[in-house]
Structures are given as C-alpha cells and as structure tokens.
Amino acid sequence: MLLMAATLLCLPVLLMLAIQYIDSHENVASQCMYSQPAGVAKVNDPLVTASTTAMPAGRLCVYLAEGGGEIVVQTGWPTTVFGLAATAAIAVLTLFALGVRHGRGVVVTLLPAIVALGVWAVVLLSAHTAH
Question: Is the model's pTM score more than 0.90?
C-alpha cells in the first residue's frame, strides 16, 4: 500500500518536468517573446534575459519596461511546490516502507524515490539561459 502511494506521488513530480518542458520547449527566448506581459517597452528587442529555470521548474523572462526598469515573469511555481511536496511525501513513505519491508523487496521499495530523484536531476540539468 505504501509503495502504491509513493508510486502515485511520482505523477506530480513528472508533471513538474512536463510543465518545465512546455514552458521552454524549442526556444525559450521565442516563448518569452510570444508571451509578453503588458507594459513591455516598445523597442526592437525588449527581452533582457530568457532562461529555463530549475527552481522553480519553468521559464524566466526579463523584459525592458515602458517607463524604465524591468518586468520579470517567472513560471512554474505552483507545479514546483506541488513537486517538492510530492517528493517529500515519497521520501517519508519510502522510509516507512523500508522499515516494514526487509530483504529482497528493498530495491522495489526504493523505485519511486529513484524515479523522483531522476526527474529532479533532469529538471536541474535542463536549466539554462538562452538570451
């Protein structure tokens, strides 16, 4: 039962990775240019920085503002918080399951935690600045 719950909790962590990919697929700079917020300066290239971020797992766009300064747009906070909570729950459930299960079942018990850690590794390695 604990293993099934931990396995289901891998879904929010995988969702976080999917949202990061959707937010920055192909070219993060073009994604930022496509989704400009109100108040961005009317210049040829108002984009200062375009990055795929790991924390939160999403996209960071920094634009020049009309009245001076910058406008910062960061995506991914809700899914990252949900992914962090799911990862913490997976860790707790795995610890409980390891206390109950001994011997041959240890590797199977660790699988949800291994999947969650693998997804976090991909999220962290995906972070980069494009513009």
Answer: no
